[in-house]
Amino acid sequence: MIQQIPDLPINMVGFRALGEVTKEDFEIVKTKVAETVQRTGKLNYLLYLHSSPSDFTIGAWLQDALLGIQNLTKWNRASIISDSETVDNFTTIFSKVMPGEFKVFPKAEYDLAVDWTSEKIDLE
Questions:
Q1: Among 105, 42, 48, residue whose Cα is nearest residue 76
Q2: What is the spatial order of strands in the sheet that 2-4 belongs to?
Q3: How far apart are CA 6 and CA 74, in angstroms?
Q4: Per DSSP, which regions of 2-117 are E strands?
Q5: What is the CB neighbour count within 10 angstroms for residue 109?
Q6: CA distance between the termini of the chain
Q7: What pTM did the predictor assign?
Q8: Which of 9, 83, 90, 21 shows the shortest CA–CA distance to 46?
Q9: At CB < 8 A and 24+ separation, what contacts does 62-69 make?
Q10: Angle at alpha carbon of residue 119, lines to 114 and 121, rounded to 5°
């Protein structure tokens, strides 16, 4: 399941992935991402992975890929919160082919991730 994270800065959108994530879970993501892009003209996106990437169904991975393609020119900053080395490695590779900046933050650095994603701070 995917849940929107409340009380984030107005220039970003964030979600938590808990347990199995399906294609249907991405409907709320697509809607909220479209609203954010319309409001701000860019996409600052945070995804907190409580679950393992293996908990995403094939349909969910396809919806996630489509989300990236649909907003290709709007990506600005995206952070993934995860303690998984696999997620970190994938994000590093993925960031080389996508516009915008992508970073993985450990779960203990959630507040830092929010500050960076919302453009409150810059990191080297």
A1: 42
A2: 2-4, 13-17, 43-49, 75-81, 101-105
A3: 22
A4: 2-4, 13-17, 43-49, 75-81, 101-105
A5: 15
A6: 33
A7: 0.83
A8: 9
A9: 62/23, 63/23, 63/26, 63/29, 63/30, 64/26, 67/26, 67/29, 67/30, 67/33, 68/98
A10: 80
Q: Do residues 3 and 15 make contact, with C-beta atoms less than 8 angstroms apart?
A: yes
Tokens of 34: 């479209």
Q: Is the dihedral of CA 9, 11, 17, 21 positive or negative?
A: positive
Distances (CA, A) of 110 to 2, 18, 28, 43, 106: 17, 16, 22, 18, 7
Q: Whats the size of the chain, residue-wise?
A: 124
Looking up tokens 């995917």 gives: 2
Averaged over successive runs of 10 residues, the pLDDT of the chain (124 residues) comes to: 93 89 79 92 92 54 52 84 80 74 94 98 89
- For residue 99, give both structure tokens: 């516009």
Give 60's DSSP letter.
H
